[in-house]
Amino acid sequence: MTTELATTTFDLPLDPNAVDMDVLKAAMGVQDEEQMGIMLPRLSIEYDSDYVDEDKKAKAEAAGKKYKAENLPYRSFYKVTLRTDWDAEEPEGDFVTVYAEEAEYQPIVCTNRYQIYNPVEEKMTMSTELYRSWDQTIVDDCGGEQSARQYKKKMLLKYANLIEEDRDLKCKNVIYGLLTMKGVVDRTGAKVDFEVINVPCVWYTHGASFMPVANAIAESKKQGLLPCNRVMQLTTGRETNGAVTFFPVEVEWGSKHIDISPAILQLTIDFTATIAAENEDIRSKYEAKHAKNEADSLAEIIVNESLATADMDEDIPF
User: Fold this and answer.
1) Are 128 and 151 in contact (CB under 8 A)?
2) How far is CA 97 from CA 40, 105, 191, 222, 303, in A?
3) Which of 154, 151, 116, 155 is nearest to 135 (CA)?
4) Tell me, what's the pLDDT at 5?
5) For residue range 25-43, what is the model confidence (pLDDT) as tens digits?
6) Dist. CA 21–CA 281, nearest whole Å
7) Which residues of the chain have pLDDT under 70?
8) Could you tell me if residue 143 is left (phi over 0), alpha (psi between -120 and 50 degrees) or otherwise beta?
9) Contact 222, 258 (CB under 8 A)
10) pTM above 0.70?
11) What gap in Å lies between CA 193 and CA 149, rounded to an integer?
12) CA-to-CA distance for 47 and 246, rounded, in angstroms?
């Protein structure tokens, strides 16, 4: 039996003066609580020191030659891959990855999700839907269902076969907003001929970068501000754990107050539609998993009943 899941929608007018603030807070994922479609560019931090050009590598191997990876001097830099003409409605041009030591990010919609990543297969093996409140009941694409607040505690045993350590089941901030990066360069160090200013983007943070971002959002909320009212000034730190070096996000809020505008309201609507499409895909996989489990259970019952009622003396020729 599958669970009926409701889709959350938000009625947002484009006139800032006509907005119900409770509805806007809910849409942006910062509603008051007792406790704490489109392929968007994704902001992240570069961890590699080498770049592998897959086409060059394949050609070298085909020719029986050894391929040497290119040096990539942007470890700890912020990076984003986008098209050279990144217009959100009709992006055009070639895809290029650009780098900068710092970034500015204006959060519009704040969500979270849990995921498990398989580094050997280089793919996600489990993802929950995106959620805005810790009190939501969420589902995942492997058939799991649990409250967001209790999800990791309750699901670790269920997905023990997918992880090596408890920390492999990660809770992530997933923040939709506008990205600005100044003085960007491509992987060769060359300046690009376009600007990265107020680019609609999605930003995942987890591990050592989870709490700095979550705390910044919570701080803004305590001050009675929406996430879009200020811009995050982003840099990276440097920490080590044994032989592993990582670069946690460091966040400071800009001092300039940004008023709600029709453009921000439209982005909230657009990001909400993107989230709804992503969640619909997760729900479809959740329901398909349950449908398969029900079919398998029914088949097992039929087989067991057939064995129980069969006349074994007549069916087996010995």
Assistant:
1) yes
2) 14, 17, 12, 36, 56
3) 151
4) 38
5) 555 554 544 332 457 899 9
6) 29
7) 1-38, 86-91, 292-318
8) left
9) no
10) yes
11) 45
12) 8
